[in-house]
Design a protein that fits this description.
Largest sheet of chain B: 2 strands, antiparallel
Number of domains of chain A: 1
CATH class of chain B: Mainly Alpha
Largest sheet of chain A: 5 strands, mixed
Structural class of chain A: alpha+beta
Radius of gyration of chain A: 20 Å
CATH topology of chain B: Cytochrome Bc1 Complex, Chain D, domain 2
Order of helices and strands of chain A: HEEEEEHEHEHEEEEH
CATH architecture of chain A: 3-Layer(aba) Sandwich
CATH superfamily of chain B: Cytochrome c-like domain
Helix content of chain A: 25-40%
Order of helices and strands of chain B: HHHHHHHEEHH
Radius of gyration of chain B: 23 Å
Strand order of the largest sheet of chain B: 1-2
Shape of chain A: globular
Number of helices of chain B: 9
Oligomer: heterodimer
Strand order of the largest sheet of chain A: 7-6-5-10-11
Number of domains of chain B: 1
Structural class of chain B: mainly alpha
Helix content of chain B: 40-55%
Chain lengths: 214, 159
Amino acid sequence: MNTPIKVFFSCLMLFVISCSESNKEMLPIMGRQTFKEVDGKVDTIFHTIPNFQLVDQDSAIITEEVVEGKIYVADFFFGTCPTICPIMKQQMLRVYERFKDQPNFVILSHTIDPDHDTVAYLNEYAKRLGVEDNKVWHFLTGNKEHIYDLGSPEGYMVPVGEDEDAPGGYIHSGAFILLDKDRRVRGFYDGTKAEEVDKLMQDIPKLFAAYGEE
Amino acid sequence: MVKSKMNTYPFLKGFCLLFGLVLLAACQSGTDKTSSTSTSSIQDRLDNKEIKYFSNGKRLYTQYCANCHMEDGEGLGKLIPPLNKADYLLKDVVGAAKIIAHGQQGEIMVNNIQYNQPMPGYSNLNANQIAELLTYISNAWDNAYGPVEVNDVKKALNK
């Protein structure tokens, strides 16, 4: 092969590599699938997050309606957590800063210690974190059983619970969970690792693109 | 031979490479890096033994402190105070030994911002490890306190 052609092809390769990570890539749909067969036609039923009713840092009642038609990121934490929560919140702040002006985007942070993390506490917590209002990022408290059920395999599929031996008295996953407009799980990311959160921030636009939104 | 031929197209090659790299950078969306530790002048204020303390302290910091005070020592909003350039720490570095060992509750003022988040104590750390930690946090990032003596830490812990 003569050299100009060689150079041309290596340039082409670089272009291809540089734009191969296009936003058109489909994210997987996670969780257990069930199938329903009607008249020989098989419908796939995907795992979805059940309905919920909680209260946010501004005393607003937050139900599944708040994420209707929205792409959202969920996580579980508690205010007095001495281990992974602060770093999770630092990382979630990056997500918040990046997407807070994006229409149809929401963040739901669930406390797993609602007895301590009251509305008033979460209000101060959010403000101290630098989240001034509840337009995008809701810090949720409510019935403990209900919150734990939401974390269960029936819900966000992450470990949450009380554990006397754990630092701070609770165990919980450091996962950030990405949900689509149908409340289907589209990704898990370790919220304590900047590079995984980078990945989440690349996946969110992909998911928006799949809905034809920029 | 191929090599010498390639050299006749240095401009084209260079241009394409550059252009490709620019595209590559453009297509990879925002990954912000946290600032790295400046250790340039550490040798000036710490001797060999103290630099060992500093290095061990860094490991302990990652294990015990960085989750809250963050890798870059900047803390978290107004929830968790910074250690970098923190007046509260730097005015009494050795005294901070007690906070590491026993934790702290209640309001404190750091660089004119009021914080009120409880910090757990780490009673499993010995005076040596605490001295290592203090050597690290008081000399990492923009902090330039100098050496921390184990004996001073022991005294502070027994106060």
